[in-house]
């Protein structure tokens, strides 16, 4: 089924087929897409900004090093009044991990609470064990930062 799953008012998740559906993107007024894959296509619309995070859905991949870059890109889109779509091939593991990291960083949520929001928005969300352990590491990292460096609450 083609659908963009709403995580927050300005953050959506999907699989790559839905992400390339121009009608869905226009309907939700998506302005920025993060493609968390090495080979999945981008939407063809020239009006949408894009970012590729070149990782496979493999527990040994280092997704951690992209958490802050993606989180800040999503937050920048939100702050400018845009809407962001994060997707990977199936919209389950890579994109779920990126959305969870964003909520942890910019909404100051615990891993448990952030993932609960992602899972509510996209019930098939299920980061692979390697990405899950990277999210746990990221949660510890965020807990050691002063509040002024964690991001702002929405």
TrEMBL record:
This is Dual specificity phosphatase 28. It catalyses: O-phospho-L-threonyl-[protein] + H2O = L-threonyl-[protein] + phosphate; O-phospho-L-seryl-[protein] + H2O = L-seryl-[protein] + phosphate; O-phospho-L-tyrosyl-[protein] + H2O = L-tyrosyl-[protein] + phosphate. Its EC number is 3.1.3.16, 3.1.3.48. Pfam families: DSPc (PF00782). Keywords: Hydrolase, Protein phosphatase. SMART domains: DSPc. GO terms for molecular function: MAP kinase tyrosine/serine/threonine phosphatase activity; protein serine/threonine phosphatase activity; protein tyrosine phosphatase activity.
């Amino acid at each position: 089924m083609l659908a963009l799953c709403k995580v927050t008012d300005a953050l959506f998740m999907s699989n790559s087929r839905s992400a390339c559906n121009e009608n869905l993107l226009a309907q939700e007024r998506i302005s920025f897409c993060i493609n968390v894959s090495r080979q999945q296509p981008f939407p063809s619309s020239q009006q949408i900004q894009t970012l590729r995070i070149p990782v496979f859905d493999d527990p040994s991949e280092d997704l951690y090093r992209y958490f802050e870059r993606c989180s800040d890109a999503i937050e920048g889109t939100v702050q400018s009044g845009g809407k962001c779509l994060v997707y990977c091939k199936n919209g389950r593991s890579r994109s779920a991990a990126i959305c969870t990291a964003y909520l942890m960083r910019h909404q100051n949520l615990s891993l448990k609470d952030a993932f609960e929001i992602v899972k509510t928005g996209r019930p098939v969300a299920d980061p692979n064990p390697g990405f899950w352990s990277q999210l746990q590491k990221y949660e510890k990292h965020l807990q050691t930062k002063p509040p002024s460096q964690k991001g702002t609450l929405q």
